[in-house]
Amino acid sequence: MQMPTPKTVGETPGCEGCPMRDLDPSTVSSLPSGPTTPVGDLHRLLIGEAPGEAEAKEGRPFVGPSGRVLDKLLCVARVDRMGLTIINCIQCRPRDNKFPTDPMARKYISKSDAEQAIKHCLKHHVDPVLRSCKWNRVDLVGGKPLRIVAGNTGRISRLRGRPLRFNRPDCSELKGLAIFHPSYLMRDQAKLHVAANDLAKSLEESAD
Q1: Strand partners, 45
Q2: What is the spatial distance between Cα 77 and Cα 14, in angstroms, rounded to a whole number?
Q3: Tens of pLDDT along 139-191?
Q4: Tell me: the pLDDT tens digits for 86-130?
Q5: Cβ–Cβ < 8 Å for 145, 127
Q6: Rounded Cα gap, residues 71 and 178, in angstroms
Q7: Are 62 and 47 contacting, i.e. CB atoms less than 8 angstroms apart?
Q8: Can you give the residue ranges of every domain in the chain?
Q9: How far apart are alpha carbons 50 and 125 in whole angstroms?
Q10: Which CATH entry fits the domain spanning 7-206: 3.40.470.10, 3.40.630.10, 3.40.50.150, 3.30.457.10?
Q11: Which of 79, 98, 113, 138 could tie 105 with a disulfide, CB 3.0–4.6 Å?
Q12: What single-letter DSSP state applies at residue 123?
């Protein structure tokens, strides 16, 4: 499969009018990776948080240190990454790696512009992927997609591994579960087996 070419947000359809683009028109956008249509019976989507340095360079999510941890988790869980579609909540790398809604991001973006940027990216990038097919499962990788995409304000430490049902505009009801983000697991490797186990669960098993 040919990998996407990194693009500045000015070259990425749907980025026009986003406050993140106005901050830095040369910002590189990380495009979704994986099949544009589901492979076999998998129909599985992973939603992460935001691109890091390696993701911005290569133009696809989870290819840096966090990506190597994710690959390890998928290997243990016996989930084929080539059959997954992966996207982030936001497609451009945040300045200083500070997610726009984090308090530390107030150094470069206002709270109102941050919220507008998130809504813009959901509307123009994430929701179209969610509407592109009937996903069997949508896994939320980290606390930010849990809140931003699923609208769930609970703590991921309490909700991880549990079945979730949520709605997005013009989508059928979506189901999946939340897992710890690989960047968190790099700091707390004792929970690696927990995340791998969550990825390996069927939604029916996670409901037990």
Answers
A1: 85, 138
A2: 35
A3: 999 999 999 999 999 999 999 999 999 999 999 899 999 999 999 999 999 99
A4: 999 998 889 888 999 999 999 999 999 999 999 999 999 999 999
A5: no
A6: 17
A7: no
A8: 7-206
A9: 13
A10: 3.40.470.10
A11: 98
A12: I
